[in-house]
Amino acid sequence: MELTTAAPGLETAAELCAAFGKDDSEFAGIALAEILKRRFNVPAAAAFYKTPLGFRFFPAGGPEPKTLYRSEWMDGIIRQSAGKTLTDFGPWAMPGYGPPEKFWITLTLKLSKTTPGYIILGRSSEPWQSRAERDSLKKIGEIISPIARMRIEKRSADAEKTKKELQLTNERNRLQGLIDSSPDLIYAADPKDHIININRAGMQLLGIKNPGEIIGKKASEFAFNPGDRAVLAKKLREEGFLRNYAIRLKGKNGRPVYCLESSTAVTDAGGKLIEYQGIIKDITSYVAIEQELKEANRSLAQANENLKKTQSLMVHQEKLASIGQLAAGIAHEINNPLSFLKSNYGAAENYIARLKTLAGTAPGSPDGDTKSREMDRIFGELDDIYRESGDGFDRIINIIRDLGSFSRSSETEDFSQYDVNEGIRSTLAVARNGIKDIARVKTKLGNVPMIRARGGEINQVILNIVMNAVQAIGSEKNAEKGLIEISTQANGPQVRIIIRDNGPGIPPAVISKIFDPFFTTKDPGKGTGLGLSISYHIIAEKHRGSITVQSKEGKGTSFIIDLPVNGPPKTE
């Protein structure tokens, strides 16, 4: 079959080029199939090429290009056309596009090294044996292959560009979504520190509803103190980044918002500043909590100070109570020597009056010898009176000295060298009258070193324990006196004091509570419940020693006190 023009290959190619020039879309592929159908006067024509996703198909007379994800007949054409420019086959019917035709020919287009394209023409009138037709098809293929290749490459490039633009848009949207979902203020500012971007949390923090209220404005306008922002920007330019920099922003209604900012100065390859980027965290609530905590700490410190004062007062009151218990005994101890001192004073006064009378008797008188003997007797008795009076004075002085040693003010007393054995002796001397009718006291005081301590406080502890023992022994109302044994011994870097009694002991159910404040087993009005609690505080906390108790009901109780020789650690 002859073509309808003298030079059909070139004219057809020219018409195809014109069609491609007019239409930059894929519909030009359908136009190509229709031009070839008309030029070669055939009932069936189409073009297609393979893509990674399937086949792109352009049928003559079709409404639009189609994508066929699977096509066995296209795969078959590709296989039989491999390595050939023209391939004959048939009879065959193009699925979905007209009846079968006897004679088909395939023109392979070189679209790229890996992607060939195909034009198929079908007719039943005669085979594709005309050299002119075959040469025309080859010429058409040579001319339109590079054009089609360029179009496909451009379309592929456009598709890739669109894909990347979509990816970029998605990435931008994703990043903006992350930024907007952050509870922290995130911003960017140009080199002159004008805001160019801010997230929703940032606008909420600043009390702004519209981005136009902040975009393009100086960041310093939103600082509580504009000068602070200038300092931050300068530091950021110099150092390149800041981490957790404390700032204050101006929130809604001008209220200060306490924040921490972490920022970066973004520069190009040459070191030129491009923009500032920062994340600002609102810590106003934490600052408020910190202020509350500081206030709570101040209140706690004040309460602790008040507690110390109360504790000091309780210690003082307990000591006064202990002294009160001893007052009657001390008065008795002092009253005895005072009584015979007073009696001796009266006797001495009478003797001196008689001496005056005797001294007036003339020497050599009849009764002179008798009166002389009387004077000798008086002088002898006066010597006894003065000796007894001296003993009385010594006893009073010793009692007052022991009382002074016992009752030294422990709160104002500094830690100093303290003789444990002497402290025990003075305490027992002060308490002797309260002890003597109820218990015997045995001491076994070892050769122990002086210790660094507050002697008045240690004396109070010894008195508390001894008087508790006296009261416990007295509660049994036995005919025989009880026994209190006090011993001291060196115990490595410590001095140990053991105070043991043979009283009724402490019940196991309450022994763990005896050092608790206000705990007492005594009858109401006979004990404050503070003595042992204060004793524990003095030994364990003030002197960094230890005090323990061992007791067995019906057998008695022992208190073991260990005190460090060097005292508690010295504080600056």
UniProtKB/TrEMBL annotation:
It is an enzyme of class 2 (transferase). It catalyses: ATP + protein L-histidine = ADP + protein N-phospho-L-histidine. Its EC number is 2.7.13.3. GO terms for molecular function: ATP binding; phosphorelay sensor kinase activity. It holds the Pfam family PAS_9. It comes from the Bacteria. The keyword Kinase applies. Residues 171-208 form the PAS domain. Keywords: ATP-binding, Coiled coil, Kinase, Nucleotide-binding, Phosphoprotein, Transferase, Two-component regulatory system. PROSITE patterns: HIS_KIN (PS50109), PAC (PS50113), PAS (PS50112). InterPro entries: HATPase_C_sf, HATPase_dom, His_kinase_dom, HisK_dim/P_dom, HisK_dim/P_sf, PAC, PAS, PAS-assoc_C. Residues 286-320 form a coiled coil. This is histidine kinase. It comes from Breznakiella homolactica. The lineage of its organism: Bacteria, Pseudomonadati, Spirochaetota, Spirochaetia, Spirochaetales.
